[in-house]
Amino acid sequence: MDYNNGYEQEIDLKELMFSVLHRWRPMVLLAVILMVALGGYKAGSTYRALSDPEVKTEARDKYELDLRNYNREVETNERELENLKKDITNQEEYLEKSVLMSMSPYDVWEARAEFFIKTDYEIMPGMVYQNPDFTGAVLQLYQSALTNAEFMDKVAKESGIESRFLKELVTITVRNNNLLSIQVRHETEDSARETLEKFVAGVKGFKNQVERSVGEHTVTEVDRSEGCLVDLSMADKQKSESDRLIDLNDRLAVKEQEIEDLEEPEEPASSYKAAFKDGAKYGIVGCVLGAFAVAFVVCVIFVLSDKVYSAKELKNRFRLKVLGTLPLAETKKAGKIDRWLNEMEGRACDKDEEAEYGLISANLRNYTDGAKSILVVGSADKALIDQITEKLNNKLEDVEVTSGGNLLLNAESLKKLPECDAVVLVEQCGVSKYSSVELEIEKIQDLDKKVIGCVVFE
Question: Which residues contact 383 (CB under 8 A, 6 or more apart)?
Answer without folding.
Answer: none
